[in-house]
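We emphasize that the prediction below concerns an isolated chain of 443 residues; any contacts that depend on oligomerization or on bound cofactors are therefore not represented. The input was used exactly as deposited, without trimming of termini.
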Amino acid sequence: MDLTPKQIVAYLDDFIIGQGEAKKAIAIALRNRYRRLRLEGDIRDEVLPKNILMIGSTGIGKTEIARRMAKLLKLPFVKVEATKYTEVGFVGRDVESMVRDLALDAMKIVREEEMAKQAPELDSYILGKIADELLPPLPKGSPQTLLEQHRAQREAMKQKVQGGEMDSLTIAVEVSPKTHVEFAGADGLPPELLKVQDSLSRMFSQMNQPIKKEVSVKEAKELLKQEANDRLLDMEKIRREAISRAEEGGIIFIDEMDKIALPSGAATRGDPSKEGVQRDLLPIVEGSSVSTKYGAINTEHILFIGAGAFHQAKPSDLIAELQGRFPIRVEMYPLDEEALYQILIAPKNSIVRQYSALMAVDGVNLSFEESALRAMANLARQANEKTEDIGARRLHTVMEKALEEISFEADENSGKDIVITADMIHEKLDRIFESDDAARYIL
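Result of the prediction step, given as a token string:
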């Protein structure tokens, strides 16, 4: 998608309050990827992504910025925690599994796009299969006039099936047995075991013949979707496109990078070592070929976004080689009271809109006075200052506590208008702040 950096930032402003520097850095990085794809010749391969390191506390928008951008541009995106990975030789997930997760997301995106493009053909196939079951078959050698009548009846029946008129009828459809050999944690398996898994799955699939199943027409529409996809979609083409998307447009967001850093003077003991995880991560970020079940992926042009609070450790506590692979550093700022208030009301599908919509399901018309929202922002700021600063996530806790009784008794208040006032907020929440211990365990 051809978006300028300013357009990207404007889009992010609809969902994320503040953090202008981080938005700008992400926008420039993504625009540079678009620019690179328009280059020709050797220079295109020489232009590498400028990986970004976001520094700031939890709940201030680090993940949301990257996630929103990937969603807007329909790019393969995975978020992982650095602490999930272990050094080679220890039990646990290896760092290459993040690339395999990216390949899986790319396959999902491309497959859904192809399904949308071929939706008419897929629907026609499914409706045709059901219509053939509902109509009596023509005997072999039927005259042309009967064949034409049958085709007209078939088209009419397809229209009825599509309109839901036949949903309650029962038909027999052939379905393939869902025989798959799956390993626990299969997404983290090394390529050799993934190949064994695929071979076993194919072997068992060949041993099992399709079976007839009596289902309603409504159920048959869903059961035949997979068969239609298998017959009409070019999976090899989808696989090639997914690999290309992952390599050229993939984004891997690595959170908790500070947790694998070794602060100066800290003991290096650990099982597995933090430094070992960093060294295993280095070739992935530098650019290497990783085997996945869909094919090898070169990570050289994948955009990596690292993130962490870096309260106890500093970015300089990462090994020098890894530091050099994250040349763009963006510091994200704690959320003040005004920012917390804006987060409540300004973004599309803001917290206030979400809770109002939830209550509307039970017929409760929920609204908030501005003073009540200001009070919640103030309490959230106080809680963040008294205890661990969890940023905007604190607002959900404050809101849940404030609306606890209203939510519980929603069925009794159906059809009523309920206005949340500042007095109601203070009555419900002020006592929680009477002691630090109460604020710590309740908020």
